[in-house]
Every structure is written in structure tokens, then in C-alpha cells.
Amino acid sequence: MPKKKTGQRKKAEKQKARQKELRKGRANRSLAELPCNAIMECEKCQRRQKNRAFCYFCQSVQRLPMCAHCGKTKCMMKTGDCVIKHAGQYTTGMSMVGAICDFCEAWVCHGRKCLQSHACTCPLTDAVCAECERDVWSHGGRIFRCSFCQNFLCEDDQFEHQASCQVLEQESYKCLSCNRLGQYSCLRCKTCYCEDHVRRKGIKYDNKSKIPCPKCGFETQETKQLCMSSKYLFFYYYYY
Ligand SMILES: [Zn+2]
Ligand SMILES: [Zn+2]
Ligand SMILES: [Zn+2]
Ligand SMILES: [Zn+2]
Ligand SMILES: [Zn+2]
Ligand SMILES: [Zn+2]
Ligand SMILES: [Zn+2]
Ligand SMILES: [Zn+2]
């Protein structure tokens, strides 16, 4: 029988799991959790949209801004890096903001760290939808990333795109270089490669990580692990 977990051990395990989650998150932090991509409802017209300084629909400036970087709506000056000093006073609204980000169009608070780092690291830089090619300024909605090809998607296209992105065209199961069945697929280029052609000459591959696509460098998947049509499955059994 396993030993009963003590409170301390339970706590340590929980912490470990959390750290693992954090590490994973940093590499591929969900766009949905970012303050610059948070849901906002316009104070004036009540339409739902992505967090932004001015309403996408009625252009009215939002009186309760949320920082695009740290997500705060109220400055308590805890970190003490405010470029505007407000000793002992909490600030909200216009007295809390310092800038508008050019990329995500949301307010950035007057904290030095947020002001300095947000513009260079804004996660919505180049957030152009892979389907309709609209950028952050051209639609009001939130931004998503396709879980297969990792491209940016707008709210309108996210479901449809992902449904089709998961499946490769029948014809493209063949290796791009030799027409044999390709065991490795790149979901970004929508191409497959065989064992011989997925590896480029003169490059050392790490056995533990997935082989990058020879064309774009995106991680390849094993074709057989993808969601396949029945016709392909037949194909697959026939060849193996
Ligand atoms: Zn509005
Ligand atoms: Zn901030
Ligand atoms: Zn402050
Ligand atoms: Zn931004
Ligand atoms: Zn779109
Ligand atoms: Zn995709
Ligand atoms: Zn090949
Ligand atoms: Zn590729």
C-alpha cells in the first residue's frame, strides 16, 4: 500500500506540477491568457472585443483600462517602478496608463517595466490571421493560434481553419522529394517527407526532439499520428 501523503509532500508535489506547467506555458503560453488579448466589453456600446484602448466599433476611449502587459487595472505602486509618482495613492483609469501599444492597440500602464518591455515583446506583433490576412487593427476580436500550424487566426476563422488544418490532402502524403510515402508531415507547409528526405545533409539531429521540416523548420509530426481519412489508413496498412 502506498504511504499516505503528508501535507508537506503534497504541497511539494503540487508546486512541482505547477512549475512544470509554467515551464510548458512559457514555451507556448496560451494567447487566451495574455492581458493584451483579454476579452473587453466597451463601456459605451457594450460590444465584446479584444482588450484595446479605443473601442473597435464606436471608438470611445475606455475609462477603466487594463495594462496590456501586466493586466492590472489599478496601480497600488507595489513594485515602485511607476514613471509617475503617486505616493500613497491608488490610481486607476487615465492616471494609470503610460502608452498605447502599436501592435495590440491596448493601454500599457505607467510602470517602467511594462513601458520598456511591452513594445519589444508584444505577443501580438505581426498577428495577422492566416486565413483572412486581417491584422489586429482590421477586426475587433481576439487573436488565436492554430494548434496545428501555430499560425495566428482571428476569432471568425479559428474553428474552421483548425478543422481543416488538422487534415492533409490525400495527394500530399507522398514525400515531396521522391514520391514515396512520407512518414513525416509538416502541418505548416502541408507536406510530407520520407525517412531519407526529412533530414538535410550536414545537419545533426537531436534524437529526443522532433525532426524539423526541411523547408520551414517547424516541427514535423509522424504522419500516422495525424487524423487521417479512411482512405489513407488503407494506404498505410498496405504499405507497412
Ligand atoms: Zn464601443
Ligand atoms: Zn503594466
Ligand atoms: Zn503607479
Ligand atoms: Zn502590445
Ligand atoms: Zn481571419
Ligand atoms: Zn493551422
Ligand atoms: Zn523522399
Ligand atoms: Zn514546413
From TrEMBL:
It is found in: Nucleus, Nucleolus. One of its GO terms (molecular function) is zinc ion binding. One of its GO terms (cellular component) is nucleolus. InterPro entries: NOA36. Residues 1-26 are annotated as: Disordered. Belongs to the NOA36 family. This is Zinc finger protein. It comes from Armadillidium nasatum.
